[in-house]
Amino acid sequence: MELYELTVHELVDKLDKKEITITDIAKSYSERIESKEKDVEAFVTVTAEDAVNKAKKIEEEKNAGKIDSKLAGIPIGIKDNICVKGVKTTCSSKMLENFVSPYNATVIDKINNENMVVLGKLNMDEFAMGASTEYSYFKKTKNPWDLNRVPGGSSGGSAAAVAANMVPWALGSDTGGSIRQPSSFCGVVGLKPTYGLVSRYGVVAFASSLDQIGPITKDVTDSAMLLNLISGYDEKDSTSLDIEKKDYTKSLVNDVKGLKIGLPKEYFGEGIDAEVKKAVMEVAKKYEEMGAIVKECSMSVADYALATYYIIACAEASSNLGRFDGIRYGYRTKEFSNLKDIYINSRTEGFGEEVKRRIMLGTYVLSSGYYDAYYKKAQKVRSVVKKEFDKLFSEFDVLLTPTSPTVAFNIGTRSNNPLQMYLADICTVSVNIGGLPAISVPCSLNSEGMPIGFQLIGNHFSEDTLFKTAYTYEQNTNFRENKPKFVGARY
Amino acid sequence: MSKEDYEIVMGLEVHAELSTKTKIFCSCPTEFGGEPNTHCCPVCMAMPGTLPVLNEKVVEYAIKAGLATNCEIARNSKNDRKNYFYPDLPKAYQISQFDMPLCEKGYVEITNKNEEKKKVRLTRIHIEEDAGKLNHDDYGRGSLVDLNRAGVPLIEIVSEPDLRSAEEAEMYLRKVKSILEYIEVSDCKMQEGSLRADVNVSVRKRGQAEYGTRTEMKNMNSFRSIVRAIEYESNRQIEVLEEGGKIDQETLRWDDVSGKTFSMRDKEDAQDYRYFPDPDLALIKMSEEYIENIKKSLPELPESRKKRYIEEIGLPEYDANLITASKHLSNLFEKASEICGNYKAVSNFIMTDITKFLNEKELEPDQIPFSGEELGNLIILIDKGTISTSIAKKVLAVLFEAPEDPMKIVEKNGWLQISDEGAIKEVVLKIIEQNQQSVTDYKAGKKQALGYLVGQAMKETKGKANPGMLNKMFMEELEK
Q: Given A334, A415, B39, B309, which is the most exposed site by the fewest CB atoms within 10 A?
């Protein structure tokens, strides 16, 4: 078996036993990227060449006893909206095509502290707005299970790179499903942590009250390991919470006996593909077999979640993206004779259609005369959603739903229909509105051989429960024996 | 109708830069000046992905200002985004406060020319961040952005439309400045822009209940221009109305050189700031204990000092008012009095000689360069008869130029008062000899001739002779 097929915890074991070296790992991934990137197109910037040199240095230092991190030399891929000092951070936008970040995101500082190796920056929908990664200004990333299909989005590059074994794990960001939905499309594990658990400092803001950085990994164990690394209070982020740090690997216990799982019926209704529904119901059955108590429940405001999400997310985005004005950094138009021209032309030429659509939506809902009818009302619905979740979590430990209403769709089939694209978020957005954690776990392939994922939603800061629940499923099933046709190896 | 038939109605929005060491949302220094873009970091330059963290000192200072101006302090407050595009605003929104300011419903008391007290009501005090500065190329080739000032904390103090004359507006602003200086939350240096005001002016016929349409003049940063601008703008509005015209609600720019106001923005450009709560910042919650502690930490305010000066020291109200109007002056007074033990002499010296000097040189009290200790020592020299009051004026002039110990100034310039009996007698005899006519006049009963002789002796000694001794000795000689 090739090194790039292993999970991170397997790599760490082998390093521990001195069966492999850090340089072996870096080389294995460099070669893998070299051979597969032209088909998958997951990267915006590859730093792999540098990665081998860096790995060599880390190995020397580790051998000399200067570094004692278990994760030293472990490669990682980073979604291209997370700032890495000295490297381009483009958000897959023409606007930031040449923007080199002068500072590190807090999660990158944590990765650097462990002496991990960043393999590159991964493709995404422009400014994380989209569900297919087709809205990237640079390239269309392919789904490793079927190159004619999208990898999902907006963290499509991250999910595809993990699925295609071009990185062992990756960081994504999730505003309305952008980690979970592509993870589901690509048959990998994606976690959206509780709002406030992971510092947002250094992730280019889309919707500040919804964004969270999270891990995309090959299995649940890796997800817990990566969350251990990136979580924790950050004084640079006022919305990060100062709570006691947990060791999530301790929650990797193969036991769901007595666990109360709710199935909110609204997530199994209209618009959910029959095969997806069936697959997730089978997951529920499996949980019952393993000793969990599964019961149908209701989330009556679920129908309003999508509208609420798009109002809040677009409102915040319209303000957050104001700074891309062609003045200090980023794209500036060549056609201007006054200040107004610089603003209008730079933004017209620098942003893609979807980004402009959302800026306009957001500007509209915040405008005087419309604020109360849209933004304010959406905030009210938001608190109702939170209350409904609170009520559900007084009865259930976790909620089980599909992650996405469908499997990965074909490239080009939805990118011209924004409403169709927005519907891809229907199962995921309410989690962001509630600020809750949720994990997407692959369960089976549909009749076309495309992966289906299920979503587990937990109460605030109950990532440990999510990991335990997901881990138990993973230990008692065998999804990872499936191989993406294209990749030609166990991923 | 004439000008007198109209009443001017004004409200001020005073912006004061807070003197915290670091900026409101990052740890860059707030220091004025510096090479362009050197007091900056990714946060205040609005690099993608950066986040604001509220400086707690800013909240504390704003609450101090609120308590010192009789405001109600909020227990729950928040930051909001005010969205607009301008190159000096790197995030394209200013973090300010919209509907939940830290302080509301206060007042500031002013005493007008007729010694009448008036309460000017404050609508609110809120915190916000300053913008950067644009340096415009003189040749029109472009503008450069300096973000050193971006993120310097400000409080905006908004008054109700309670002001009725340029004079009242100036008094109000002076009072606000004085309060902020007393509580040490702002250095209020108007020349550096750390205190500036937007002035809203409207006029209405006397007796009319509703307000007229107002215009706003932004970023005024000297008392003189504010007074001139109000006078110009109110007259302009009256003229427009008298000619049957209408006032447009608009933002104006005051031009100090031409002494006129100019329209700043196109009317169709009416701004919609799209205020909404900043999702990057948490709610600001203040406990009773927190507010109580700030209250306890407040220093003595001008009103209380004034009362003390009148009741304990016995200064006339007018003097007490003038001295306490500036913290610097008041501190100078207290220190000098402590040194020399003669409150009366110090206050007289401030009210006459120092005030005269400031007026002549068009200086503000906070530009006085010498210390209270130096002033106190000067008064001691007068009290001990080491120098005369006329020499004291000369010493004061030197103190304004190059402050040092007054005794040293006196010695360097050879200004020691002549109190030696022999030397004075010599002068007296010389003057008597030279002015026989005056001697005759005196002996004939014209007692004012004595004053003339003393004056001549003073002239002879260049003001250094001890005037008491001169008087006494002339009397002795003339009575012989």
A: A334
